[in-house]
Design goal:
By secondary structure, this protein is an alpha/beta fold. Helix content is about 50%, strand content about 15%. β4, α6 and β5 form a beta-alpha-beta unit. The mean pLDDT is about 95. InterPro entries: NAD_biosynth-regulator, NadR/Ttd14_AAA_dom, P-loop_NTPase.
Length: about 170
């Protein structure tokens, strides 16, 4: 089973794409835990909150590392690269456990969603005006992993078609 991370700035269609690809390939997908976690906070998130989010992400990764499915893919709606960037951006420090997991090389490939969709604000989204900045940061982080990645663009059905084409182009 190939492990695919779908990442990108906020409001770039990651969740919709993860769901659509999972349905198309009859494969499992892992929702973004951070969204649910932050939505349920009564105060602004803290360093410890982001640690909890990272630990849950690692738990999901460990599950799929130890429980292969017959499906060709498993799709993750986000990964620790995004968490690493938020640790760095918000707190100027990154926990060692997160770096260790990133260095394990869990994912086989990344689909990096471009910020070419309109910004849709909601209570937990931040920095809509900085999506290009974060897109470039995520791209650099992916490149450091030396893993395959494809930038996904397009609106509506075209975004999904581009993602399918991207997956078909990757050499697994």
């Amino acid at each position: 089973m190939f492990k695919i991370a779908i990442i990108g700035p906020e409001s770039t269609g990651k969740t919709a794409l993860a769901k659509q690809l999972a349905e198309y390939y009859n494969a499992p997908w892992v929702p973004e835990y951070a969204r649910d976690y932050v939505e349920n906070l009564t105060n602004p998130y803290t360093y410890e909150d982001v640690c909890n989010i990272a630990l849950k992400q690692i738990e999901f990764e460990k599950f799929y590392e130890n429980n292969a499915s017959e499906a060709k893919f498993v799709f993750f709606d986000t990964d620790l690269i995004i968490t690493k960037v938020w640790f760095s951006y918000c707190f100027d420090k990154i926990p060692e456990f997160l770096l260790d997991q990133l260095h394990s090389g869990f994912f086989d490939a990344y689909l990096l969603c471009a910020p070419d969709l309109p910004w849709e604000p909601d209570p937990v989204r931040e920095h809509g005006e900085d999506r290009e900045y974060f897109f470039n940061w995520y791209k650099r982080e992916i490149e450091e992993t030396k893993k395959a990645y494809v930038i996904i663009t397009g609106v509506g059905d075209q975004r999904m078609k581009n993602a399918i084409t991207a997956l078909q182009s990757l050499k697994f």
